[in-house]
Design a protein that fits this description.
It holds the Pfam family DCD. By secondary structure, the protein is of the alpha+beta class. It is built from 6 helices and 18 strands. A hairpin with a 2-residue loop joins strand 4 and strand 5. It starts with a helix and ends in a 5-residue tail after the last helix.
């Protein structure tokens, strides 16, 4: 069941949902809440200077070195961020969200007005029961020649609240497959978050998918 504006506001009043800083009147929608773009951006590095020379950086999600492959830019209020054609960055939400109820999760979506500007905001994702923290926003300038300027504070995405069929305990909410939750809240969830388990990544790197399925078969 998707929560309406009245239901969302009631959950906020009872403390089951929180936003820090609090919401303003522009953000409440009939059955969603718009979130604003924050001040922090993570920019992929494309090259580095080594003793051998200038080396292109390949981002390997299984290497465990994600933090080393991004520069972080933190703007001041009133500053803007210009995306180059085809550039991809990761922004953050201005508000931190807190889901404190055992029966509530969210789905994150882009606002259509952002996509119409030539930006791709790939946001369809789940916000788990019990999550507290800022959210990461992957943003791509899809144009070939046009610089696109974005401002911290713009409403770029929205969360839709959904009531789940049965309560989930805080312990169960932290369990993602065989691993505890990757993200521990805060704006460093992307850079500082946990990687997937090493034994899983090792089997993937070696191409041993059959062994992965066998060794970690889901007990029913």
């Amino acid at each position: 069941m998707i929560l309406s504006r009245a239901d969302i506001q009631e959950r906020i009043r009872t403390g089951e949902v929180s936003f820090t800083p609090g919401l303003d009147g522009f953000q409440m929608q009939p059955h969603a809440v718009d979130l604003r773009l924050g001040l922090e951006f993570h920019i992929p590095k494309t090259w580095e200077l080594t003793k051998e020379g200038r080396r292109a950086i390949m981002i390997d999600p299984l290497s465990g070195t994600a933090a080393e492959n991004f520069d972080t830019v933190t703007l001041k209020p009133g500053q803007y961020f210009e995306l180059l054609p085809q550039e991809s960055v990761i922004g953050t939400t201005y508000e931190a969200i807190g889901l404190h109820a055992k029966d509530l999760m969210c789905v994150l979506y882009p606002r259509s007005s952002i996509n119409r500007r030539g930006l791709s905001v790939a946001l369809s994702g789940i916000i788990d029961v019990g999550y507290t923290g800022h959210l990461m926003i992957p943003i791509v300038n899809n144009t070939d020649q046009q610089l696109i300027r974005i401002y911290p504070g713009e409403r770029v995405c929205q969360v839709v609240f959904q009531k789940i069929s049965s309560d989930i305990s805080a312990e169960d909410a932290q369990l993602h497959g065989l691993t505890r939750a990757k993200y521990n809240g805060g704006k460093d969830g992307f850079i500082g978050g946990k990687s997937d388990r090493e034994d899983e990544m090792q089997l993937i790197r070696e191409g041993r998918l059959a062994a992965l399925k066998k060794d970690f078969a889901l007990p029913l």
